[in-house]
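User: I'm putting together notes for a lab meeting next week and I want to include a structural view of one of the chains we've been expressing. I don't have a solved structure, so I'd like a prediction I can at least talk through. The sequence is below, exactly as it appears in our construct file.
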Amino acid sequence: MSMNWGMANRLARIIKSDGRAVMLAVDHGYFLGPTSGLEEPRKTIEPLMPHADSIMLTRGVLRTSVDAKADKPIVLRVSGGTSILKELSNEDITVSIEDCIRLNVSAMALSIFVGSDFEKETLVSLAKLVDEGEKYGIPVLAVTAVGKDMARDVRYLGLSCRIAAELGAHIVKTYYCDNFEELIGSCPIPVIVAGGKKTPEMEALELAYNAVKGGAVGVDMGRNIFQSDSPVGMIKAVRAIVHENVSVKEAFKIYESEKNSKARKAS
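Assistant: Thanks for the context. Below is the predicted structure for the 267-residue chain, given as structure tokens.
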């Protein structure tokens, strides 16, 4: 992919020199409100930041809950406008490019809802955001949100990812699925896999392992980290899978070791 130096530099801060990325997702509040585990964002974020390559969040949480001295790439959520009480696909761009520049972000994230009532609106918003990003060298991460009544199979997710790439997105965040390698093969931009809803720790680690083995550059995990009984243990374990190619069993030992260490200190 041909791009200017500034954009290439920002992407290189997110996807490290080994071609892998661990993104921490803490943007859930923009439509869920005070999500379990994120009631006090600063307390959640601070212990996890050192172990993430980048962090995905809203500008409100960035300004109030992240130390400005923190040297961590920011992937800023710039779409929204709806809550769980309404049709989620009816989103719009909610942050100006000027504010993204002021906040020194490394990428802008926007959801697309392929197959939903507001498919066109979200896709046009993606195209407009890419245009703005190209002016100032800021890459765009397209999030393939699952439209209502659409299954998370390779045909649907492959369609969503390819459309995002065709409209100019620089990274795409999607879900892991059967025949994932087929999705990777048909998407010409880096793919990062969403952690999704909270699952048992072993399952979340298996997801991370299968994602990178299948060709994803890494994972963007939130609830499977900050809702874990050992958030630091989980992000360390995920990091070991993504960057050190350890097995799921080895990663689970890292999680358990951190969990047990914390329990001993508390006793």
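A couple of points you could mention at the meeting. The longest helix spans residues 248-266. The mean pLDDT is 95.

User: Perfect, that's what I needed.
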